[in-house]
């Protein structure tokens, strides 16, 4: 008996064999595919300020594996701590220790361990513990009680254990289910134990931290509501200072969410100090994160604190570290919206101008997007400073800055008045289209259509013809294929803006040049935009100018180009009419059915269905079927398969009469094909089109063919024939 212990103990001898301590339990992990055995014969119990359970036969590793089974301990996680003695586990009286059916609980609760039964009762007043044998009825009652009560602790115990596991994936899984742990603990224990544990525990793995940051942003409900949301700030503040960018960004995102959950008083008392600490942090990562929190905190705090926040942000704009200034340049636009025009001009405009003139181009390029946000905030003459900033950035010595201006040019246009857009911004855009760097020209070329659309209607045509088209003519023959590819993706959209005559006079020659370009992506982008000019130039001009080039592309060496042509066939068919289509394009539609690329054959098959829908059944019988059905006699089995695929899709349009007269005989013929792949596709075809016929036709014509296929030597043929019989309910 330990010193100073007044407890009385009664021990009844029990020496179980080396039973499986957790047989079939999910809580104790397997090692080398064997359950760990524990000898309970050397257990003894002590009562006092704490309850010590000593198992001399347990190894340290085995005891470590028992940690998650302790719930409700003093440790924030409810996990027993390992004592100094190598084989002693120490827990408090009030804890629950549940190992399969072993349970230490509050007074007069009973417990079992496998087939060895004993009871433990603890009376807090007398600190007495007794061990004795249980009856079978008591055991039954215990299991029923466990089933309805403490079994809920199993998954929670596992999750808590996994929070400390060495395996990153297990920790990650547990973090993702943090809400489950919080629900089990309740709001009070979550605030008092779980959150402090998460704050004090350092996870080195970025993936775990990222998941934790995401969870905490939506944890308000689990800590008791907005009244207690401030307890979540500390762990997120720690994560906002780590080195990994994605973790910091997620922490900032969650902090922004929590900022709006705070009351005004709590915001000033808890959230603003977090912003101040991060903004004044020694390590630059914390200052980077701080820049993203100002706009969330600013609107609801007092004017005095608002002034402090503006000063702090201005200091970040002048920080010695370029990375911090980059973050400030990124966030200054959204902060300006929160601050308002007057205070921004008073306290932050000079800092913004300084960022636009920063020594590092990585800072200057981020000013472009922020400038747009600020320009939308300003009105009238207030934009003069911003206009000069944009004009200066568009001529920056760094191509990366000019690229950013070109890439965001449509946003820049929308932020300023139309007069500035028609004059100075047009000159800026022309300069970007003529830039010496291909990357800048490419970015500007991709914005041509959007730039032209945003021009005021009364001056649009004039600016396009006199300023933009001369630049486009140069870009059509640009030495860089990326520039031409970007231009080809948007140039067709200019046609509706300039009308029929200007399109024919100025744009058509450029379209033809791009259609004949050596780069497949350029040709592909032009073809993909054909629908944009059909209504502008008319059928006659389309057939005279573009169709010859389109026909040439029908046999392009790049299969993606051929695929794009196929996809636009229905559109061309509707524009050209049946007669012209039969003369110029029908043969290509049939030829694509024998292409060596499966994607082309598949697209050609679907194209055929659309053409039949457009031109009608009579056209299909007269013009299409005679050519398509000849594929059934080709030596290449792939072409015979394509014939079946065509029958599948066209039969849906043609109906049972035409299908029975013109298509079914070919299907029946292919049922005797020497290639098993063709034969089982016959069965699949009959399953697809068979239901359009009446029962008499199915019994007299289709059933005999399927019966023959059922007796085929090939297993796949038999299988699909049987599937077809079931689909047609032939039994």
Automatic annotation (TrEMBL):
The keyword Repeat applies. Keywords: Repeat. HEAT repeats lie at residues 155-193, 309-347, 348-386, 425-462, 468-506, 507-545, 546-584, 663-701. Residues 420-499 form the Phosphatase PP2A regulatory subunit A/Splicing factor 3B subunit 1-like HEAT repeat domain. GO terms for molecular function: protein phosphatase regulator activity. InterPro entries: 2AA_helical, ARM-like, ARM-type_fold, HEAT, HEAT_type_2, PP2A/SF3B1-like_HEAT, PP2A_Regulatory_Subunit_A. GO terms for cellular component: cytosol; nucleus; protein phosphatase type 2A complex. Residues 510-615 form the Phosphatase 2A Regulatory Subunit A helical domain. Pfam families: HEAT, PPP2R1A-like_HEAT, VPS15-like_hel. The keyword Heme does not apply. Belongs to the phosphatase 2A regulatory subunit A family. This is Protein phosphatase PP2A regulatory subunit A. It comes from Trichuris muris.
């Amino acid at each position: 008996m330990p010193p100073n212990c007044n407890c009385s103990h009664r021990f009844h001898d029990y020496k179980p064999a080396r039973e499986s301590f957790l047989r079939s339990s999910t809580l104790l992990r397997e090692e080398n595919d064997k359950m760990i055995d524990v000898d309970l014969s050397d257990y003894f119990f002590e009562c006092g300020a704490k309850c010590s359970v000593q198992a001399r036969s347990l190894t340290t590793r085995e005891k470590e594996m028992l940690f998650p089974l302790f719930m409700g301990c003093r440790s924030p996680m409810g996990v027993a701590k390992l004592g100094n003695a190598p084989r002693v586990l120490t827990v408090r009286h009030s804890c629950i220790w549940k190992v399969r059916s072993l349970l230490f609980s509050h007074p007069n609760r009973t417990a079992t361990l496998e087939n060895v039964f004993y009871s433990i009762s603890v009376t807090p007043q007398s600190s007495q513990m007794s061990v004795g044998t249980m009856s079978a009825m008591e055991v039954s009652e215990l299991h029923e009680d466990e089933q309805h009560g403490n079994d809920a602790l199993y998954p929670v115990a596992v999750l808590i254990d996994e929070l400390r596991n060495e395996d990153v994936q297990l920790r990650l899984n547990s973090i993702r289910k943090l809400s489950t742990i919080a629900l089990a603990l309740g709001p009070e224990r979550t605030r008092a134990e779980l959150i402090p544990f998460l704050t004090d525990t350092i996870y080195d793995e970025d993936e775990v931290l990222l998941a934790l940051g995401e969870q905490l942003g939506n944890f308000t409900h689990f800590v008791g509501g907005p009244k207690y949301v401030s307890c979540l700030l500390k762990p997120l503040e720690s994560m906002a200072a780590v080195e990994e960018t994605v973790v910091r960004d997620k922490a900032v995102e969650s902090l922004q969410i929590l900022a709006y959950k705070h009351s005004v008083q709590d915001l000033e008392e808890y959230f603003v100090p977090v912003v101040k600490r991060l903004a004044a942090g020694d390590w630059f990562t914390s200052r980077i994160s701080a820049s993203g929190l100002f706009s969330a905190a600013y609107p609801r705090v007092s004017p005095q604190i608002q002034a402090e926040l503006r000063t702090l942000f201005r200091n970040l704009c002048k920080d010695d570290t370029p990375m911090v200034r980059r973050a400030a340049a990124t966030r200054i636009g959204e902060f300006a919206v929160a601050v308002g025009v007057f205070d921004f001009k008073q306290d932050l405009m000079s800092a913004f101008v300084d960022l636009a003139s920063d020594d590092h181009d990585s800072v200057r390029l981020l000013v472009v997007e922020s400038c747009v946000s600020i320009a939308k905030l300003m009105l009238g003459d207030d934009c003069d400073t911003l206009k000069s900033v944009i004009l200066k950035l568009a001529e920056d010595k760094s191509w990366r800055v000019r690229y950013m201006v070109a890439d965001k040019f449509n946003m820049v246009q929308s932020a300023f008045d139309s007069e500035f857009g028609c004059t100075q911004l047009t000159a800026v855009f022309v300069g970007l289209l003529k830039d010496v760097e291909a990357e800048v020209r490419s970015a500007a070329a991709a914005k041509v259509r959007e730039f032209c659309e945003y021009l005021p209607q009364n001056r649009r045509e004039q600016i396009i013809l006199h300023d933009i088209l001369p630049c486009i003519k140069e870009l059509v023959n640009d030495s860089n294929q990326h520039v031409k590819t970007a231009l080809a993706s948007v140039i067709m959209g200019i046609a509706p803006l300039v009308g029929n005559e200007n399109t024919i006079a100025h744009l058509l020659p450029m379209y033809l040049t791009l259609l004949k370009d050596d780069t497949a992506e350029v040709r592909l982008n032009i073809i993909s935009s054909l629908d944009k000019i059909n209504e502008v130039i008319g059928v006659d001009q389309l057939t005279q100018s573009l169709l010859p080039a389109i026909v040439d592309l029908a046999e392009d060496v790049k299969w993606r180009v051929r695929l794009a042509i196929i996809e636009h066939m229905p559109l061309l068919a509707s524009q050209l009419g049946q007669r012209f289509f039969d003369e110029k394009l029908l043969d290509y539609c049939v030829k694509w059915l024998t292409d060596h690329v499966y994607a082309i054959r598949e697209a050609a098959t679907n194209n055929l269905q659309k053409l039949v829908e457009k031109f009608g059944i009579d056209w299909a019988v007269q013009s299409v079927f005679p050519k398509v059905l000849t594929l059934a006699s080709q030596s290449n089995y792939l072409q015979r398969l394509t014939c079946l695929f065509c029958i599948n899709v066209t039969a849906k349009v043609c109906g049972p009469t035409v299908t029975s007269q013109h298509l079914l005989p070919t299907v029946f013929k292919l049922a005797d094909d020497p290639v098993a792949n063709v034969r089982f596709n016959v069965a699949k075809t009959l399953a697809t089109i068979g239901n359009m016929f009446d029962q008499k036709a199915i019994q007299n014509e289709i059933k005999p063919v399927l019966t023959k296929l059922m007796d085929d030597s090939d297993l796949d043929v038999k299988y699909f024939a049987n599937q077809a019989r079931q689909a047609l309910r032939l039994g």
